[in-house]
Design a protein that fits this description.
Layout (H helix, E strand, L loop, with lengths): L1 H15 L3 E10 L4 E5 L4 E5 L5 E5 L2 E6 L8 E11 L1 E2 L7 E5 L5 E3 L4 E9 L8 E6 L4 E2 L5 E5 L3 E4 L1 E2 L11 E2 L12 E7 L3 E6 L10 E3 L8 E6 L20 E2 L5 E2 L5 E5 L2 E5 L1
Parallel strand pairs: 11-20
Antiparallel strand pairs: 1-2, 1-6, 3-4, 4-5, 6-14, 7-8, 8-13, 9-12, 9-15, 10-11, 10-13, 16-19, 17-18, 17-19, 18-20, 21-22, 21-23, 23-24
């Protein structure tokens, strides 16, 4: 058991942190375009014969900015975020990370979903869950803490011109600077081999631009498991972990199974592999 405990601590640290770096980018906006490009890709703007501006990435034309007195084109220099998401140790095929910035809005790339969260209280605090709602519209708004779930470990977030407001219902927050000592009641995205990926009590430093959760009750519970609104039968089983103590067993979709069932099951609130 000690060996598994040490493994869980190692995985928890890696899931919540993950490598994250910034790159320089330029965001072009105008009547015909709302696109951002990494400066390392050498974007350039040249006047065309139609009174507009053509944007090139190397020798390839990527778009056109129309010069209009009512909507003049602009170029805004912002950061792009390169995030290395961590794979769910339960081998579900999902990769997780978090994100927050007050710099501006960012596009949600293909193969990635971004979720905001709201805590659902129950009579038993240990059964409280974090309901995750997928963002619509393809952007993460300014000052909007999110959980990122991807189909690979490489996430590139590029700036967006979107000026929409972050959801007032979202309980996930963050900071633009490192937090050496989180306040009491802080929960971070981590992993426990018994209950899977979720938000667990966190006291270690939190890097800049990572989302986290602060509970008003000061953190009297150990963890908050996920409940994805758009995946009723999520294969990772996070939303359906059961706490029954009567010996019943459930598969990762929350369906009760008999003694003959082989594979990973949830029994007495823990994940058990039957062979």
């Amino acid at each position: 058991m000690k060996r598994f405990g040490l493994l869980a601590v190692s995985l928890m640290c890696s899931v919540v942190l993950g490598a994250q770096t910034k790159s320089d980018a330029v965001l072009f906006s105008g009547v015909e375009l709302d696109e951002s490009y990494l400066l390392t890709e050498s974007p350039s703007v040249v006047f065309n014969g139609d009174g507009g501006l053509d944007i090139y990435l190397g020798d390839v034309k990527k778009g056109e900015l129309v010069i209009d007195d009512g909507n003049p084109p602009s170029a805004e220099f912002r950061s792009a975020f390169n995030i290395s998401a961590k794979q769910d140790p339960d081998n579900t095929g999902n990769y997780y990370s978090t994100f927050f910035t007050s710099e501006g809005a960012y596009k949600i790339p293909e193969g990635v979903k971004a979720y905001i969260g709201e805590v659902e209280k129950t009579d038993d605090p240990d059964s409280d869950v974090l309901n995750l709602t997928a963002l619509a519209g393809g952007v993460i708004h300014k000052k909007e803490g999110v959980v990122l779930k991807a189909d690979n470990d490489d996430i590139l977030l590029m700036p967006s011109c979107n000026k929409g407001d972050a959801s007032s219902e979202n309980k996930l927050t963050g900071a633009d600077e490192d937090i050496p000592t989180p306040e009491t009641g802080t929960y971070g995205l981590t992993y426990d081999y018994r209950t899977g990926v979720g938000f667990y009590k966190w006291t270690n430093p939190i890097p800049a631009n990572k989302a986290f959760l602060v509970l008003e009750d000061g953190g009297s519970i150990k963890a908050l498991r996920f409940n994805f609104d758009d995946e009723q039968n999520d294969a990772d089983g996070i939303r359906n972990i059961r706490k029954d103590r009567d010996g019943k067993a459930f598969n990762l979709q929350g369906v009760k199974v008999g003694k003959e069932y082989k594979g990973m099951v949830i029994k007495n609130g823990r994940k058990v592999i039957r062979r």
